[in-house]
């Protein structure tokens, strides 16, 4: 028994890499007729706009989230995930007349939630124009999409290899850094397609979404979590094989 435990600990640190990829970004974007928006018009809208103050009606702003997984890998007790994160909120100061969404040019800065990934060891947000966008609908709903990579701790124990055949639940937490400009940013998962992992079924076995409130010294924070169940390469069969090999020696 002792030797099994020692082996399992060794196994848990085995560099394994299970990866799969989908061809492209979100497919559920509304079809938008590309018509360049007059920067003068948006400039007018932002004339007396203060981007340090949030679009709060009652001190709170609700940010709807959806996450489209593009790539997931597990190795050495961490999960690396690359996804498009889409955040939507409504800012009544940005209501305009028109029937199309417009792209907000980077020079026209508007208030945005100070979203970060509290449990991540590493975060990379793509700065490429093709992998980031900020759109504004006539009703004042802003949608920020960005391609993001995070590395989060995700422990697979020997007991879990045996109990779940190498499956492990990894969590990506999403929260606000300091409720900037409002009393509280409240995260909510979109009702439909909140977590999309189409094309990654070989490694992602299920996904679940939750939200909660976290109380810390500096205030109350809303947190959204994406729970991703992964199939690692460390299955019971692999474990048995190694144990048998070892006893042959
Ligand atoms: C604003 O418009 C967008 C799309 O144009 C729509 O998805 C959203 O539900 C609208 N929001 C409100 C608060 O009416
Ligand atoms: C992961 O979480 C889901 C939902 O909570 C649960 O049904 C499943 O059994 C968990 N998987 C593992 C490997 O613990
Ligand atoms: C997100 O959570 C809601 C409510 O708990 C559930 O109805 C929905 O199916 C979930 N979506 C995903 C992708 O897990």
UniProtKB/TrEMBL annotation:
GO terms for molecular function: extracellular ligand-gated monoatomic ion channel activity; transmembrane signaling receptor activity. GO terms for cellular component: membrane. The keyword Lipoprotein does not apply. Keywords: Signal. Residues 43-208 form the Neurotransmitter-gated ion-channel ligand-binding domain. The keyword Mitochondrion does not apply. Residues 1-19 form the signal peptide. This is Neurotransmitter-gated ion-channel ligand-binding domain-containing protein. It comes from Plectus sambesii.
């Amino acid at each position: 028994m002792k030797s099994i435990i020692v082996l399992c600990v060794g196994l848990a640190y085995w560099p394994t890499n299970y990866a799969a990829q989908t061809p492209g970004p979100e497919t559920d974007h509304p079809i938008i007729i590309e018509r360049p928006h007059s920067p003068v018009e948006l400039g007018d809208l932002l004339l007396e706009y203060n981007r340090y103050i949030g679009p709060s009606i009652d001190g709170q702003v609700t940010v709807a989230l959806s996450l489209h997984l593009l790539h997931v890998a597990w190795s050495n007790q961490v999960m690396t995930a690359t996804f498009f994160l889409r955040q939507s909120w409504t800012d009544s100061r940005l209501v305009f007349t028109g029937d199309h969404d417009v792209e907000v040019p980077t020079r026209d800065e508007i208030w945005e939630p100070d979203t970060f990934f509290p449990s991540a060891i590493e975060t990379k947000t793509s700065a490429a124009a093709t992998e980031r966008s900020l759109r504004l609908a006539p009703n004042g709903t802003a949608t920020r999409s960005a391609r993001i990579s995070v590395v989060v701790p995700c422990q697979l124990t020997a007991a879990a290899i045996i109990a779940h055949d190498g499956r492990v639940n990894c969590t990506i937490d999403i929260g606000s850094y300091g409720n900037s400009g409002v009393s509280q940013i409240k995260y909510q998962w979109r009702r439909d397609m909140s977590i999309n992992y189409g094309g990654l079924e070989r490694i992602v076995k299920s996904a679940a979404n939750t939200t909660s409130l976290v109380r810390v010294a500096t205030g109350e924070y809303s947190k959204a979590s994406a729970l991703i169940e992964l199939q690692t390469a460390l299955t019971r069969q692999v474990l048995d094989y190694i144990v048998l090999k070892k006893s042959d020696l």
